[in-house]
Amino acid sequence: MYPLLFRAVLSRFDPEFAHHAGMAVIRLLGVPPLAQLTRAMTRPDPSLRVEALGLTFASPFGIAAGFDKNAVGVRGLAALGFGHVEVGTVTAIPQEGNPKPRLFRLIPDRAVINRMGFNNQGADAVARRLATLRRGAPDAVVGVNIGKSRVVDVADATADYVASATRLAPLADYLAVNVSSPNTPGLRGLQAVETLAPLLRAVREACGTTPLLVKIAPDLPDDEITAIARMAVDEGLAGIIAHNTTISRDGLLTDAATVEAAGAGGLSGAPLKQRSLDVLRVVRDAVPAEFCVIAVGGVETARDVQDRLDAGATLVQGYTAFLYRGPFWGREINRGLLRRGTVRA
Questions:
Q1: For strand 103-106 and strand 84-90, is the pairing parallel, antiparallel, or unpaired?
Q2: N or C: which end of the chain has fewer CB within 10 A?
Q3: What strand order describes the sheet that includes 266-269?
Q4: What is the CA angle 243-68-57, rounded to 5?
Q5: CA separation, residue 133 to residues 49, 140, 325 (Å)
Q6: Catalytic option among 149, 181, 268, 276
Q7: What CA–CA distance (Å, rounded) separates 233 from 255?
Q8: CA-to-CA distance for 165 and 162, rounded, in angstroms?
Q9: How far is CA 56 from its chain centroid?
Q10: What count of other Cβ atoms lies within 10 Å of the Cβ of residue 17?
Q11: Radius of gyration over alpha carbons of the chain, in Å?
């Protein structure tokens, strides 16, 4: 049903408009009694539970940052069967993001190009929403992904990240530092180990007992990924999220003119599948077995999730395939994992 709806109707709408319309429905699904009815159809089997970061995840599969930037749909996403929801990216200072249009579908590739630019309502607004959410138990682990405010110079990035961490860490189950989006000028330069280490050290101190992870780019050379992974362990981080969107356009099926017209931005979706596995293996080889590694990129099916778990991922996230597979994608993944009999190799 949903594939037909997508082809006939949703694909004709502007992608960002369609996303906001979908989020409106997801928000409704988080309101009683719809939440209870939806949850009854989508609740992950208890055998899928995962212990990580000192937390219990109902499923190893969660929704990646970028889908719910302002923590408005957490209850609805939890009701749809996702084991965790990573909200954000949130910046200390509210910002509109890049000019529209800034989100583009590459339908033949089941992919998306975005240059959203961390559009969000800011740390204070998200913190207030999370505080309300916490009073009612959100039914899923809630991570918060933080980024650099656009108006803040890269030289002052540490203080900006610390401001967000101070406000949001007490309300988050875990915090993720995003230094890997291609849509904020200068941001990816922060991934250099000599720059990243002191930044993460300062943010970790601001986090207190909240687990801290760092999200890296897939476009880094493998030796740099290894260096960041080892540094994350040395600095006492709880984990790594591998990985963000790519600036590569290699191997796409979509007409080259369409890709060119979309312009700059991060590519996500099915074309990242192999690179995602490769980056995961590089990270896992560089960190201890107990270190949390969250795999992201090119995830569409239960087999994709299982492949990442077998390759050493602690947890797995998805985003883009939600656009192509619809609201019961989380349930589909969880049921597929259950049919496979185990979430571990």
A1: unpaired
A2: N
A3: 103-106, 111-114, 266-269
A4: 65
A5: 22, 11, 27
A6: 181
A7: 42
A8: 5
A9: 18
A10: 13
A11: 18
pLDDT for res 4: 82
**Residue whose C-alpha is closest to residue 74's, from 26, 15, 114:** 26
β 266-269/292-296 pair status: unpaired
Q: What share of the chain in percent tops pLDDT 70? A: 99
Give the DSSP H or E segment for 335: helix 329-340
203: amino acid identity, one letter = V
| 181 labelled catalytic | yes
Which amino acid is residue 306, in one-letter code?
Q
Q: Sorting pLDDT into bands at 50, 70 and 90, what band is 207?
A: very high
pLDDT of 225-251, one tens digit each?
A: 999 999 999 999 999 999 999 999 999
pLDDT at 345: 43
Q: What is the DSSP string of 174-226?
A: EEEEE---TTSTTGGGGGSHHHHHHHHHHHHHHHTTS-EEEEE-TTS-HHHHH
Q: How far apart are CA 262 and CA 109, in angstroms?
A: 14
CA angle 280, 80, 277 (to 5 degrees): 10
pLDDT tens-digit readout, 277-325? 999 999 999 999 999 999 999 999 999 999 999 999 999 999 999 999 9
From CA 108, how far away is CA 208, in angstroms rounded? 45
